[in-house]
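Hi R.,

Here's the chain you asked about this morning:
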Amino acid sequence: MAVTGLCLFLFVLGHLAGNLQVFLGAEAINRYGHFLQTTPELIWPARIGLLAMVGIHIWSAIQLSRENAAARPEGYGEQRLTGASLASRTMLHTGLVVLIFIIYHLLHYTAEVRFLNGTGRDFSAFLDHERRHDIFKMLVVGFSNPLVSGFYILAIGLLCFHLSHGTSSLFQSLGFRNAAWRPMLDRGAQVVAILIFLGYASIPTAILLGFGKEVLK
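And the predicted structure, written out as tokens:
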């Protein structure tokens, strides 16, 4: 679970770096998207690998949950939470919401299922002046819907809440966290989770505030 979590965490960082190119303008983000779309030998192994990581991560979570339940078949008479944070106690719940979000995100911006984008427009028909897929316009049009943007921001918030505990705990699972390092790793994981949230949330927020509105004309 720690290894797959680490792989998925690195993907979250890489995906964010790619998405933030939207602030460099249409040329930058469209060039980046065109590169990915025209290198199937790169993008398809990455997609299959990521889906495998997600599947193994979910399977590991279910197995760990079963083992924990089997270790204590009878519940606590009186449960007192002393060391467990809210993030650690809700990992399965936030993970489930993140899974739903991943499925929606893939259908929304990767498969470009029209009836799910909230705009009624065909994203696959968006082309820039070089006949490349106009990802810049797709993002602007897609996030111009407040409900869609709100769902994305909420889901990213839950993802980062999930990461705030998961990133720190994976160091423990891999044997790199001890009593001396724990406070720094815990705080570092929280800071990184906040920065990731701000990075991802900045895109729909900026678009709702008018960024890129010229493509809507």
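Residues 164 and 190 are 5 Å apart (CA to CA).

Let me know if you need anything else.
M.
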